[in-house]
Amino acid sequence: MTFDRSLKIAPSILAADFANFGAECAAVEAQGADWVHVDVMDGHFVPNITFGAAMCAAIRPHIKTVMDVHLMIAPVDRFIDDFAKAGADIITAHVEAGPHIHRTLQAIRGAGVKAGVALNPGTPAETVAELLDMVDLVCVMTVNPGFGGQQFIDMTAKVRALRKMIGDRPVHIEIDGGVDPTTAPLVAAAGADVLVAGSAVFKGGSVSDPAPYGANIKAIREAIAR
Ligand code: DX5
Ligand code: ZN
C-alpha cells in the first residue's frame, strides 16, 4: 500500500447482505470500490453488535484491494493480534475507547498493520495532536457510531483543522457516516481523501445485480468532481 491522497471510496459492508459477505466484497470491488470498510461492533462501546476477527479472516480472500477494519470495541488491545492475523491492512481504534490510545496505536503498528485513530462527533481534533506521527489514518465520524443509514453530522470544520495539523505527513483523512452525493463534496473539499459509504453504495443492488453499486459509487465521485 503506497500512500496517496487521491479520493478513495470505501464501501462499508455493514450495508451489504450479511449472508453473502465474500461475494459482496468481490462485487463492490468489481464495481469500482477502492477499499472495503469493515465495521466491527461489540454492543459495549457502541449499542450494536456486528462480527469479529473470524469473519474478517473469512472475507479476506475475497478482498483484493484494502481491508479497512474499523473497531468500535472497548477494550481494544487484547483483540489487535486477532485482527492482524485475520489480514487487516488497516486497523482503526477509537480515541474514546480507553485511556491508552497511544499504547493501542503502538500495538497495531507493532503487529505490522497500518494504524488509524477514529474520533466521535463530540471529540475535538486536538485529541489526536500527539498521535499524528504514529498513525496512517484519522477517521472523522460524521454520525454517532453504531448503525448505518444515519443522518450526516457536519464535521467540515474538524476536517479542515485536521488537514492543517497533518500537513505533509502521509496520513489519510477518512469520513465515516452519512456520506452520499450531497455530503461527499463538503468533506472532500475540506481535505478528506477516504470516504466510507454504506447505504449510499449498496442501495438498489445485490450480488446478482451489482450494477447499481457501480452507479452509486460513480454518483459520489461525479458529485465531488463537479
Ligand atoms: C457507523 C459505521 C459506518 C456505517 C456507515 O457506525 O462506522 O461505517 O456503516 O454507514 P452509512 O454510510 O450508511 O452512514
Ligand atoms: Zn465505520
What would you note in describing this structure?
The protein has helices at residues 21-30, 53-59, 80-85, 101-110, 156-166, 184-190, 199-202, 211-225, and strands spanning 8-11, 36-41, 67-72, 90-94, 114-119, 137-141, 172-176, 194-197. It is of the alpha/beta class and 226 residues long. It has one domain (8-225): TIM Barrel (Alpha-Beta Barrel), CATH 3.20.20.70. Strands 1-8-7-6-5-4-3-2 form an eight-stranded parallel β-sheet. Helix 3 links the parallel strand 3 and strand 4. The protein starts with 7 loop residues before the first strand and ends with a helix. The model has no long low-confidence stretch (mean pLDDT 98). The site of zinc ion (ZN) has 6 residues, from strand 2.
Proportion of residues in extended strands: 15-25%
- Poorly predicted residue ranges: none
- CATH classification class: Alpha Beta
Instruction: Identify the strand order in the major beta sheet.
Output: 1-8-7-6-5-4-3-2
Number of helices: 8
* CATH level 4 superfamily: Aldolase class I
Heterogens: D-xylitol-5-phosphate, zinc ion
Mean pLDDT over all positions:
98
Estimate the global geometry from the Cα principal axes.
Answer: globular
Q: How many β-strand stretches?
A: 8
Radius of gyration: 16 Å
* Pattern of helices and strands: EHEHEHEHEEHEHEHH
Largest sheet: 8 strands, parallel
CATH architecture: Alpha-Beta Barrel
| SS-based class | alpha/beta
| Domain module tally | 1
Salient structural properties:
alpha/beta; TIM Barrel; eight-stranded parallel beta sheet; 8 strands; globular; binds D-xylitol-5-phosphate; binds zinc ion
